[in-house]
Write a structure and sequence with these properties.
By secondary structure, the chain is mostly helical. Helix content is 66%, strand content 0%.
């Protein structure tokens, strides 16, 4: 439970709001949550998988030609 409190203190409080009425746009809230620092490892993993897919595809195309 202590790690939850520590993590909550480090993260942006806007991500945990239940009624974000003062947000000017829902897009702003969406972008804040999408590009938060806590999701950085998942963005890196996704980027690595995309690059791996392109490399694997280019190698397999050379084998077929």
């Amino acid at each position: 439970y202590q790690w939850l409190i520590k993590n909550r203190l480090k993260t942006d409080e806007r991500l945990f709001e239940v009624f974000p009425a003062h947000q000017t746009c829902r897009c702003v809230q969406f972008l804040c949550s999408m590009f938060s620092f806590s999701l950085f490892p998942y963005w890196v993993l996704g980027l690595c998988l995309v690059v791996y897919g392109f490399v694997l595809n280019s190698v397999s195309m050379k084998c077929w030609l």
